[in-house]
Predict the 3D structure of the following.
Amino acid sequence: MYGVMILRFFLFLISFVFISSISPSYATEQPPENLVNIRLISEKGNIKAEESLDIGIEKVIAPHWHTYWKNPGDSGLPLRITWDLPEGFEMSEIRWPVPMRIPYEPLVNFGYEGRVLLLQTLKAPENIAEGPITIKGDIEVLVCKVECIPEYGSFELVLNADHSVEEDNSAYFDAAREFMPQDLGLDVSFYEQDDQFHVLFAGSENVLAGLKDKELELYFEEWGTVINNEPQTVKNENGILVSKKRGERDFSEFGNSLKGVLAFEGDDGRVGYSFKAQHKPVGSSDVSQSGESDSQQAVAKNVQNVTIFTALIFALLGGLILNLMPCVFPVLSLKALSLVKISEKHPEQAIKHGLAYTVGVILSFVSIAGGLMALKAGGATIGWGFQLQNPLMVGGLAYLLFVIGLNLAGFFEFSNKFGNTGQSLAAKQGLSGSFFTGVLATLVATPCTAPFMAGAIGYALVQPAYVGLTVFAALGFGLALPYLALSVFPAFQKLLPKPGAWMDVFKQLLSFPMFGAALWLVWVLGIQTGADGMVSILIGMVLISFAIWMLKHKPKDTFWRNFVFVFVLIAFFGSFLVMPKIIKPNEMTDASHVFGETYNPEKLSAVLSHDDPVFVEMTAAWCITCKINHRVAINVDSTKELFAKENVRFLIGDWTNEDPKITKFLESYGRNGVPLYVFYGARDPATGERPEAVVLPQVLTPSIVKSYILGSQ
């Protein structure tokens, strides 16, 4: 990776030693015959307060010699200038003319020959002194032919002097601006695939037409993007796609954007356009239009094969299966427990409670889905379960489950919930309890993804709002259906055991899954925000427990009762005051992911450029289905040995906190939530082609993983 940098330094060091040996005083004085004659000039001789004025660094380079662009290519150094400006004055970055390729086998450099004018803009402050204004600059420039020689000099320019009143270099500067790259006005993106660096120019057909059939040259401001002496290919498909062998640098060093210049020889001389390319990982929709692999295009189209009928069926089945998930089953058991009492003495009320619970579930699903659709329409890159990427939501849900656990354990009682089964159960408060239990069931269900859900959700989120919300309503109806069936059909109620003392014991038993769920959310919060956030929420739980304990021991005396009540309020609100400590996301990742490599688009592109098979897991700490799959089917000895034997590269993407790159990957496979498992088979030794990528089921076993790796699926 550092080979080019070392080569540059080596050439510079040899040149410096050579020139120093023949001219010891060179660092303080320029030689009599400079290879580069430099002067500072201004567009006009005067500058006023708060005015901007273009300043030029003119280089007149000796014949057969050259200097360098801001990215010098495979060797060399760009011109550097250190300004000494009067107080309050500011100087912009250098604006570089369109460069040219300067081959020197096996290297290719970028730079200039002949006369060149670099431009910078000087900005004057609000107040400037009367009389001449002097600006100074120390300039270093490397000039090369076969050998390279560094030249140095101190230069100055005087503005607002008497003799400069009539000076006007506007024509010279206007001519120099003609050699500056102009804005291209196209949508430009870049990505890496199959060891190639691809740049796609798309947009106005008129602009694109002017670029076709030209000998295009790409110059990137960042070195190491491509191998400069390798040939490039140009395809006129969905725009103009320029491809070249990628360089040694890791793409993560470039960030999400990359600046450069697109140049060619026009009818009236050299033409250059500046551009800023946005990174489009392989698998995004933009890349699919411009050269994405056929396998990923096929998988991304899967959602298009789902109809509204199949989406509704999938949603209903997925909702039914959610009831068996460890995050939902305790809540369903809780409602079944209450139904035992209701159905015995007030069977007519059972239907009302079933309907209230169903309405709570469906409205909650539709509300969360509506918020998700609105945020996505506004440009947010989020997916199903997005609310649990917010540490405050995770903390609030942990509080709620903890309080419910305390109630079930008998630490305190909610009125009109499990006791007092008479007329109060027919009252509004009883039905409200069922409604909000449905809301709770939805909240704790969102971390889980059941089979059939992924296809239904992926379909819903790319449809018009009324269609998408209908699918989510079906998902909620599936979740509520078991309890609704028990409430409506007396025959099902007969399957329930008779009321008795066992109910209190069973109720207390259910507190432990609630405490376990709360503890799991605290662990999730620790991954999201670090130890400080986790400790803050634990302090909040202690304060809540203290507040409830004080309410249970209220004195009879009015004064002391009010005194205790004040402390209860302080403890209760104190639990929420500590929550701002958990807002800031943490850079930590789930420590359980010791098996595998961290996913990012650049890493995926790099491993896919080789021949080995690749397995990608998209997970999140708050996704219970993900954690179970990982523990029982992936992070086990049999799967590890299988991956090692088959040379499978294993990448893990952690979606615990919001990550737009992972969201885009999920969307490219028609998904909007985790888990997602994608397997890329090894390349065919004969053709060099990979088979189509395949998506694994959402519930895994070691045998399922093995069948896909060995190609029996």
